[in-house]
Design brief:
Layout (H helix, E strand, L loop, with lengths): L3 H11 L6 E6 L4 H12 L7 E9 L6 H15 L3 E5 L10 H14 L5 E3 L4 H13 L4 H4 L5 E3 L6 E3 L7 H10 L16 H16 L3 H30 L8 H4 L4 H14 L7 H12 L7 E4 L3 E6 L2 E6 L9 E2 L5 E4 L2 E9 L3 E2 H4 L4 E4 L6 E2 L8 E2 H7 L4 H4 L4 E4 L2 E5 L3 E2 L10 E7 L7
Helix pairs in contact: 1-2, 2-7, 5-8, 5-9, 9-11
């Protein structure tokens, strides 16, 4: 192990890998990821036993996309490294830009990749470009911190690591030449119409002329910004605790007492904790403006591409976008499982519990969404009441009310998720019955 790339990678992985760890490498077909995979494969005899797998995301945006995927297949076969090729369809008009949409889909693939660690091939020059790019876009401390060398991926997937982040690209080129490696070039990397390419080919070389070592200085600055971002996270956690109520959610009245900068810091922290990308400053400003003038009894929603911020009963909820129910009804013919608004509807048989199968068999059974004006009698000792009132008393948030499945037996409302069944459909102690459960998965902060 004579090359600095291999030594750096060995030191990085040795601190993390345990026997039987699963290591993945994101392989694009470009020089950087080819070097990373080749070096990781060469280190296998020197590190605790681990499995090595590569993943290639086929975006389909370039005429070269099929050639890149074919190269990855061939290269991995030469190393006897398993390869997973994931094809994604990138929306061209998503409001986040083609590059942003591609990145989001790529990281969605990464988040479900079967590994403990997933290595990305970013290097020090990439870090410098990222810092400068974000500063020119007016990013705050977190954005200026650039890319982290080790962080959690979304949805409980593998940790994303960047083992080569401290190395200049020139060392990766030297490694590739020393080992006679081939790779594929992306023609779009030379297109100066893309702002990042303009930085790389026009601005960074000029900076290096007047400021030798500019890339290294920018990368070091990223470390300082990252330290400041960690301190802001610590402050956000302290402030978050001071403004949270009995349910652990942020209370609007307490939140609005915080100084504006600290309130924005708490919101940003909550957004990141929910697994979303850091929100733009203009979104934070608009959210704070609405929250500052919001009565605790009001209901508001401020959304981004990633998720939604709600206020309900004086508390803040940070949620992913919720799948909406089908516009048409869903017929239930006795299945043990159906799907409704992205969540499972389960039917559990029993005796003397739940809903009477005898009563349910008297007419067709259809699940529908709420339209307003429905009435239900959950308690036989009390009169039939409006579903609106029942949902309010059960503290079902408005955004969930629109998604709830309602079971109709003929023209009679028999059951509502979150409320229960109508008294006339309740199962007698000796009857065959069925319990209905709708699996909600709502995270609140």
């Amino acid at each position: 192990m004579t090359h600095r790339v291999a030594q750096t990678l060995n030191d990085f992985l040795a601190r993390r890998l345990r026997p039987q760890s699963r290591l993945g490498v994101a392989l694009s077909s470009g020089l950087d990821s080819v070097v990373l995979l080749h070096a990781a494969h060469g280190l296998r005899p020197l590190l605790p036993p681990f499995t090595l797998t590569a993943v290639h995301v086929h975006h389909g945006l370039s005429k070269q996309a099929d050639a890149w995927a074919a190269f990855c297949v061939e290269f991995c076969a030469s190393l006897a490294v398993p390869l997973i090729v994931e094809r994604v369809t990138v929306p061209l008009r998503s409001g986040e830009g083609t590059e942003g949409a591609a990145r989001r889909l790529r990281h969605a693939v990464f988040s479900r990749f079967p590994a403990d660690w997933l290595a990305l091939a970013h290097h020090r020059d990439d870090q410098a470009e990222t810092v400068l790019f974000r500063l020119l876009r007016g990013s705050g401390v977190l954005g200026a911190a650039g890319m982290s060398e080790d962080r959690l991926s979304a949805a409980g997937g593998p940790r994303l690591i960047r083992p080569l982040l401290s190395l200049p690209r020139a060392l990766l080129v030297a490694y590739a030449e020393e080992h006679g490696l081939r790779w594929m070039d992306d023609d779009s990397n030379n297109d100066w119409r893309y702002r990042r390419n303009f930085l790389r080919h026009a601005l960074m070389p000029r900076l290096a002329e007047g400021f030798p070592g500019a890339a290294g200085s920018l990368a070091r600055a990223a470390g300082h910004f990252a330290e400041a971002a960690r301190l802001l996270d610590d402050l956000a956690a302290i402030d978050r605790q001071s403004v949270s109520g009995a349910h652990g959610r942020i209370e609007l009245k307490r939140f609005n007492v915080l100084p504006a900068a600290r309130a924005g810091n708490v919101l940003r922290h909550a957004w990141l904790q929910a697994g979303f990308r850091a929100p733009e400053a203009r979104w934070l400003g608009e959210a704070q403006r609405q929250l500052a003038g919001c009565d605790p009894s009001a209901e508001i929603c401020v959304a981004t591409v990633d998720g939604e911020l709600h206020v309900y009963r004086g508390e803040l909820y940070v949620l992913p976008h919720q799948p909406q129910p089908p516009s048409a009804g869903v017929l239930w013919n006795g299945e043990t499982m159906l799907s409704w608004a992205g969540e499972p509807l389960s039917f559990i048989p029993g005796r003397g519990t739940g809903m009477s199968r005898r009563m349910l068999s008297q007419a067709p059974r259809v699940f529908k969404h709420r339209v307003g004006g429905e009435r239900l009698q959950p308690d036989s000792r009390r009169p039939r009441r409006s579903l609106r009132k029942l949902l309010q008393e059960a503290a079902v948030p408005p955004w969930q009310r629109r998604r709830l499945p309602l079971l109709w037996c003929g023209d009679r409302l028999a059951w509502v998720a979150g409320i229960g069944c109508d008294a006339t459909f309740a199962c007698a102690p000796t009857e065959e019955g069925v319990e209905i459960a709708w699996g909600e998965n709502v995270s609140s902060f």
